[in-house]
């Protein structure tokens, strides 16, 4: 049984480990150095201060994924637009966890006053993130060629967007 809930301080070690897997071994993120638990605590606190969601997915009390919605851009006119981030622990993909996280992020973001959600996805040959977002109603709205450089190669990003449904 999947439980999606708000992240708490005790989840951050698992969050850091999950994300480090992608930093160290993939181009899914353009981070080069994995953030430590204290950096994740700062992110959790900053998002909470802004009323934005930081969620975890757990199965049998094990955190197997996380996601959050952060500000798209810092300028005030963008305050109703958020960017989503979703990562799953190795071995837990393809089980509906990403969709559960993203669906909950969209609803919580709408409750927080967001009206648009943006996904910035590395186009590294793995289409799973694009497929997840399309399954949740996102559409591709742009592409930025060769904006990331990691592991000795240039990587494009795809921009996907979805209007959020109002949630009571």
Task: Outline the structure in words.
One of its GO terms (molecular function) is acyltransferase activity, transferring groups other than amino-acyl groups. This protein has a seven-stranded mixed sheet with strand order 1-2-3-4-5-7-6, with helices on both faces. The protein contains four helices and seven strands. The protein has a single domain, classed as Gcn5-related N-acetyltransferase (GNAT) (Aminopeptidase, 3-Layer(aba) Sandwich). Strand 4, helix 3 and strand 5 form a beta-alpha-beta unit. Helices cover 30% and strands 36% of the residues. The chain is an alpha+beta fold and 168 residues long. The protein starts with a strand and ends in a 5-residue tail after the last strand.
Keywords:
seven-stranded mixed β-sheet; 168 residues; 7 strands; single chain; alpha+beta; Aminopeptidase; 4 helices
Order of helices and strands: EHHEEEHEHEE
Low-confidence stretches: none
Major sheet details: 7 strands, mixed
N- to C-terminal distance: 26 Å
Number of separate helices: 4
Task: Compute the average pLDDT.
Answer: 96
What's the alpha carbon Rg, rounded to whole Å? 15 Å
CATH homologous superfamily name?
A: Gcn5-related N-acetyltransferase (GNAT)
- In the CATH scheme, what's the topology name? Aminopeptidase
Global geometry: globular
CATH architecture field: 3-Layer(aba) Sandwich
State the secondary-structure class: alpha+beta
GO molecular function: acyltransferase activity, transferring groups other than amino-acyl groups
Organism: Saccharopolyspora spinosa
Pfam families: Acetyltransf_1 (PF00583)
Protein name: Phosphinothricin acetyltransferase
